Amino acid sequence: MVHHLLRVPIRRVLLFVVGLSLSISGYAQTQPTAQLLPYTFTGQTAEVAPAGMAIHRFGTSSSTIPTSRTTSEGNGDLPYSTTSSAGGWLNAGTNGADGIGLLASGSNAAGAVVVSINTTGKQDVTVKWLCRVITSSSTNRDNSIALQYRIGQSGNFIDVGTTSTYSSAGKTAGDASSLFTEILPAAANDQPEVQVRWVYWESSEGLSGGRDRIAVDEIAINGAATGPDVTAPVISTRNPADNASNVSLGSSLVATFSENVVKGTGNITITLESASTDQVIDVADAAVVVVGNQVTISGVSLAYGEAYHVTIDAGAFADAAGNLFVGESDATLWNFTVVNDPGVPTLISSIQGTGESASSGTYTISGIVTAVFPNWSPAGFYVQEEDGEIDGDPLTSEAIYVVQDNPTVLVGDLVLVAGDVKEDGTAPSYGQAIITPTSVSVTSGGNALPAPVAISLPATSATYLERFEGMLVQYSGTLTVTDNYDLGSYGSIKLSQGGIVYQPTQLIDPNDVDPNGTTFSGKSNVTAINNLLEENALRTLILDDGRSVAPVVLPYVNSDNTLRIGSTVQDLTGILGYGYSAYRIQKLPDGHPLASTTSFTYAPRPTTVPAVGAATVKVASFNVLNYFNGDGLGGGFPTSRGAITEVEFNRQRAKIITAIGAIDADVVGLLEIENDGNDANSALADIVSGLNSLLGANTYAYITEPFAGSDAIRCAIIYKPAKVSPMGAALSSNNPVFNRPPLAQNFQIVSSAARTSSTVAFNYIINHFKSKGCGSASGLDADQNDGQGCYNSTRTQQSAELINFINTVKATSGNDYVISMGDYNAYYQEDPLDRLRNSNMMVLANSTDYSYQFGGQMGSLDHAVVSSELNSLVSGVAKWNINSVEPTYLSYKDGIDSGGSDQANPWSSTYSSDAFRSSDHDAVIVGLDFSEALPVELVAFQVDNQTKQVVINWETASETNNDHFSIEKSVDAIQFSEIGRVDASGDQSVAKQYQYIDTKPFAGLSYYRLVQVDLDGTRTVYRMKGVNRANTGSTFTLYPNPVQSELTISAVAKTQDTVYSYDLLNSTGQVLLKGSGLIGAIEASINAQIHRVDRGLYILKLYKKDEAQYLKFIKD
């Protein structure tokens, strides 16, 4: 194993476009002279097309390149190109074996290769040809090429055949050629001129970028005589070819005739030239097999290094008309030389060794072919020692990969391979032990395969699997699909032992050994995170289809074209390879004797929305995945972040509306919706319109956001007017720490299922915190290697500011019931959530819930957070896993999301307007139950800020088991202290008024709330109100705020010589420092310790006698 460069994005092979402009003056369309049959073309080295051939184009710009299989004739000649990257045609060179290579660019819109033939006296005209890609581009455009014909030199062409279309999709330069054969229709028989052409068209219309050069080669056209058949069959090709060298020892001889033949009478003679001895085989022998026009002679005795020639008796074969083969007695027609004796084979295990790299050098090996991969890049096959040749050392591999284009060996062949071994990061090794052969000989066929070797997971080390490199292996048991991100892009998935793999910080707190801890800074527990990260890697491996391009047929999927994370694989069997810096189980090709050993059990889709208990109100959050509706009038595409075309947008719209409609929540917070205002053409109005079309008019309405922020996307709220009614205006934070500000709305429940009070309400907040992507992150926002990614400092500051915003929302609405939902871009145990927990907010659900998949690890970035007052009313919480566990190619996009490029999706049948993969995040759903009757029905709560006092008045409509009311006061709306009690009447069913007067109110902003206490001591928190009083006594301010290392207390002159007591409190109310002295001394005492405190919100209380002032600041 040698690590090397990461996998590059897949490429779709196509005709290559470059920015070249050529004049078209002087070009005309040549009509080639008809050629007598047989006609052959095997290569081109000159700049002039060979006799009988012309290369036409369809226009003078790339826009005229056909986008379907056009039958129209061309309108000019395509000029010869002098370089491999310029538009036009040229001889294809090495990768194209000197075929005609086409490339479209600018005014050179390549169109077709045209060959003119004379079929007079001929029928059943057969056309054979090869196609291959010779120069590949990295862009995303597919092209196809197919055969057509016409009679004469004018008129439209006619398509020939439906199965001989060549597509560049999934192919790279030098890929194995595709061979085609078609018989022209009877109309082409006995004609003085017939034109056949190979026309191409662009099947990925609308994309931009380069196209690949495609070559047409090895053209052979012939026909049968129109009268009685008097032509004897002749041998057209031989294998081994005449004068071939390095022929395998166990090779069969194959003669391909010009037409179908049957056995006659006579012998085939193979002469050993060094001894003039013959092997004579009667054509009637079972070793001679005739299939159509192909004769195979097997069981020939050959010797290393010897030269042979083959002769065949006249009359040994005949065609269907009885015309006898004239024979081949000339010893110079079919000669070949067998490969030299490779010597004594070296055990593969001794080449592999016990280290991470095989021993380089020239070796001969012997072993059984366990799997053949002709379409890989590089192509080749795996060879493993026979069971009897295993060295017994468990640390050495018994197999190696043989690199060979167009391999002809079969699974079960015993082969002798001589060549050069290497294992490094360069091609064609790519970190895997390979042998590039100088000779490959088949000693015998049909041998039993070596028994698959058992592997264990979790691996004992990162190099544990090296000992099995190249071998046929099996994991006996169950593995879980934990990553399907690359399924559409590369045909690979990740499997794990012991269930799905979680993000470490989903389960482990970076700062607290106790997962219930709420510390939100430090790295005291990072070692545990790194340990879990290593454990995750050791229990995970990759199942691959062996190619670095999009699969032609989706592997592993069920009838819904999906393979959800959580599906399982039983008895995984394959070849353990290595590539792209990872060990991979290579999927055995279809038809392999062990291919059926591996089986899949598919995780079911959650077709119904999960229940959230007996909820009075159901609320949700939903990421709408960059929902951009263009200009709202059908135009404006492509959009800056979302759909590229209107077709894409309509698919996205259908999926999202289906999903949100199925959730049927009373309030839904939307994330990643276009920030384009609130008018009728906005994205927000569009999504509400779609929901109302699905569910009925006026089912949903939307909240108008007061401040949407600076980002291209924003947060939004939609709601059901029949279930909830907005109370007051919406609130947004304008703090610059947010570029996507949180949005809050107070809702009153209008359903009769709510508590008896007509004023039961709650606050709903939707958030979208800074992402984990690093970008320009620096300082504390750079990755701190604590598992939390980049911008964790910003997200934690956003949490602190969200607490301030929540307090503002509470004070403005007079309601402590708060649910804050959205994408916090923080996993369950990370600092931003602990910052919320530290402020008495409750993060619902648990650590094994998930809403997002990244890097093959599951976790939840999406959360529902509630105030402690609301927590007891939560009837249930669920995450509807319709997105995170589904493959990316099921989305609305025309392309496959491959992490940085938008590759064409060749499986149009995978799209469905259902909810699955409507986004990349899962929806979060919460039920709130307001049905239980409160002990007190509160109908009014007022806080009156008077000159020297604050008067609190409240009124109840009824009371049950009510002992007293507690009046509490706070400076931060987090930590409250009781300032007084008012006795209650116990039980009563008539209205009653109460009053309490605070004669010592705080200067500045403070908060009052009412707490009802039952006879048994049960507390129920009711309303909260804020008041802001001018400073009438000592005036203090703090700066800078936020502060890093030194805090200044600014005071009016008359306070400088006054002794004050002070308390420094954290956000939970814990006293960290206390003392007394002059203001300057207090400032010095605090600055001596401030570097020791964590980042977060703090309160400085300065007081003397009956005077107190509370000053809030943030430590950065």
UniProtKB/TrEMBL annotation:
Q: Supply the SUPFAM superfamilies for this chain.
A: DNase I-like
Which domain of life does this protein belong to? Bacteria
Please provide the record's keywords in A-Z order: Signal
Q: Which residues form the Secretion system C-terminal sorting domain?
A: 1038-1114
Under the GO molecular function aspect, what terms does this record hold?
A: catalytic activity
> What residue stretches are annotated with the SbsA Ig-like domain?
229-337
Which part of the chain is the Endonuclease/exonuclease/phosphatase domain?
A: 621-880
CDD domains (alphabetical): MnuA_DNase1-like (cd10283), YhcR_OBF_like (cd04486)
The name this protein carries in UniProt is: Putative secreted protein (Por secretion system target)
Name the source organism.
Dyadobacter jejuensis
